[in-house]
Amino acid sequence: MTQTQLAEAVDVTRAAVSAWITGRATPRPETIERIAQALNTDLATVHTRTTDTLAGLPIDWYHRPGHDDGGRDLGNAAAFAFDADVGVLARETCQNSLDERLAGNGRPVRVRYTLHELTGEALDAFRQAILWDKLHPHYQAVSLSAAHQKVGRVVDAGVRDMFEKGRLVLLRIDDYNASGLTGDDYDDGKFAAVVRRQLESLKSGRAAGGSYGLGKATLWATSALGLVLINSTLSVAHEGRTERRVIGRLELPWRFVDGSPYAGPAWLGRPDPDSPGAKVARSWWADEETVERLHLTRDSDEPGTSFLIVGAHDVASLDQSAPDLDADEEGGDDDGTRDIRAMHRRLVEALGRDFWAAMTGGGSRLPLLETSVRTLRNGEVVIEEEKVDPIVAQPSRTRALRAFYDGTTVDRLTEAGQVALRTVPFRLPLSGGRRGTLGTHPAVLLVTAAEDADGISNQVHSLRGNRMTIKKSGVAGLPLGVNAFQAVLLVGQAAGESVPFAEEAEEFLRAAEPPEHDRWGQTEELTLRWSHTAHHRIARLTTEVNAAVKDLVAQPKRSGGQGGAKLRKALTVPRKTAPRRSTGPALPELSGLDASIGAGGEWQISAEVKLPRGDELPPMTPVVLLDVRSGSRPKLDWAELIAVDGCEIEDGVLRFTPGARRAVFRGSTDVAGHPVRTALTRLVLELRAGKGE
Questions:
Q1: Which residue from 474, 558, 588, 57 is spatially nearest to 280, judged by alpha carbons?
Q2: Residues of the chain under the 50 pLDDT cut
Q3: Strands 459-463, 167-176: parallel, antiparallel or unpaired by DSSP?
Q4: I need a surface site. Which of 224, 226, 357, 692 has the fewest CB within 10 A?
Q5: What is the DSSP letter of 141?
Q6: What's the confidence (pLDDT) of residue 381?
């Protein structure tokens, strides 16, 4: 009933009903009897008001009917934006929790990942709790069409794995000190954005990591059954309550069951009496026994949300050569496809790799995030809860960030353990396609010596306000003899909330991130809101950062008496002398080339250009060709072209920095334009004057 309908049935005002629901008033005993009669329930339910009434409204699955126009959705396209990889899942879900952190109390958001393998009676009890008998016909229908479409094959494999091997892996993600899924079931709000809608992101603040509304799709992509259950404790009351707001969502492809077509998604919930025939399921306020049977019990009444991924699988574990699969480890699974120990390790590694900065505090700054991972089997501990420690995961970078927070940085590295700081100008463009600069944001660059536990050395990790690592890049053209180092670039609010143009830098860089949030570059949003050349400002920032890093790590020159001259002479590479041109300006020329084949089959190229002396050098265009035995060489398109040092790139043309003696650029080819498999080809790179025609 609506509040108005109940008020009419009980013969009171609507304001009185509202006061009862919000707890501002209590109905008189004779009124309680009329309420029970109107709701067709017992007096105890009206007195306690701790659970929904059960009369005629049992929890059930609602499946969206097939489209009237005959259209078919054979899966959620948003799920294909990411791999079914627990590392990707950790990155996306932890980012969402960071974005929903309740910042007013100053405490970090706590995120815990629980892997729980069910077998035997525990598995049977869970299947009964999720009403598996009602879902089974839909899974059967999907399995029958599995040979013809991708999502169906994944779901069919997940169902067969559960029954043939008698096990099911649950992966639960709990966050605390977060906002929870607030808002109405259908109207605008966080609940509807996550549970009902696609491609909607309702994030607060410019420092938020998410912006596409795609990250939640990783939850369903990680489930081999396409099933996720949710229990949320709200920071803002809805319908007068905050605890145990529960719903389930199932993502299946179009199917035909018992003579009826179904569009795809389904929801587990209470039939909504306000919908025609009560055929739409909405969230319900569950009791403690129900959330326990659904494995959704939360540790406290602190606001936040628990997501339970049913049938969690990790595609990376299918790679038998992966280093985290230890076949000899006691308790490991026989085929590795559901190895909860390996998934545990990969979660810990991913959290430490991507969120070390968010978990680091110092000075007056507290950590934004705490994370941990634990693993169970039928309620028994397999691996104790393991808290992710940033100093263990990223010792050098954590040391650098703490030194910045504590104010103990130096101008130049002279001793082991020091952290050098350099501000780097980031010139922000005007929006709306206007020419000019809005202002200069001073980004903070930190450099320190590398340690073995850091992984690949001589890298720059870039991050902004939510302190998740966004971009990882090497520094090209380092001089010989440089000691191994690690660098951290803080941009936007990560550099300090009071730093000039911090909010504007956050907004600009957020628009420059793809759905994976793993780099900054040209995006459609950046082009629409700023201009098609706005990404050049990011390239200039990279050039400035690389120059600053090289200046900080360069070894001081030795005197001639230390044997340096003899060593340089011994290492000199003789070059053939070419006849000097009598007329015409000198042109830049390629002096170094490094190429490899990427994971997607693209050519990845790094090239160095020798620049002649001169104030104005002509623009040059790098052109990549396939080497053939006869005929003209096929030209390949660039998928990405990035200026690294001594140059800028505009519309595929290199423009060189005045006074520079060398330039470095990187690029990758567009695989869609490759006429044959990359491994069977040879590459030719030419540097042509002008626009390359």
A1: 57
A2: 54-56, 205-213, 318-337, 558-582
A3: unpaired
A4: 692
A5: H
A6: 92
Query: What gap in Å lies between CA 500 and CA 498, rounded to an integer?
Result: 6
pTM for this one?
0.70
Amino acid at 30: E
For residue 618, which of 665, 652, 656 has the smallest C-alpha distance? 656
- Percent of the chain whose pLDDT exceeds 70: 82
* Strands (E) located in 132-253: 167-176, 223-233, 245-251
How far is C-alpha 352 from the geometric centre of its chain's CA atoms? 14
Do strands 683-689 and 380-387 pair parallel, antiparallel, or not at all (unpaired)? unpaired
pLDDT in the model for residue 567: 40
Burial (CB count within 10 angstroms: exposed 0-12, middle 13-18, buried 19+), residue 379: exposed
Pairing of strands 260-271, 281-282: antiparallel
Confidence (pLDDT) at 635: 87
Cα separation, 102 vs 181, whole angstroms: 13
Q: Three-class SS of residue 394?
A: coil
Cα–chain-centroid distance for residue 235? 24
CA distances in angstroms from 481 to 446, 550, 554, listed in the order given: 20, 12, 8
Name the packing angle between helices 14-22 and 3-10 (round to 10°). Answer: 110
pLDDT of residue 493: 92
Two tokens, residue 161: 């794995």
Chain centroid to CA 175? 16
Q: CA-CA distance, 417 to 162, in Å (whole number)?
A: 51
Nearest to 367 by CA among 639, 101, 578: 101
244 CB-side CA count, 13 A: 17
Residue 513 carries which side chain, given as an amino acid letter?
Answer: E
Q: CB–CB of 475/550 below 8 Å?
A: yes
Helix (H) or strand (E) holding 449: strand 437-449
DSSP line for 399-425? HHHHHHHHT--BSS--STT-EEEEEEE
Distance CA 665, CA 547 (A): 14
Structure token digits, residue 251: 């993502």
Tokens 């309702």 sit at which residue?
202
pLDDT of residue 556: 57
- CA 629 vs. chain centroid, Å, equals 45
Joined together, the tokens standing for residue 496 give: 């300090």
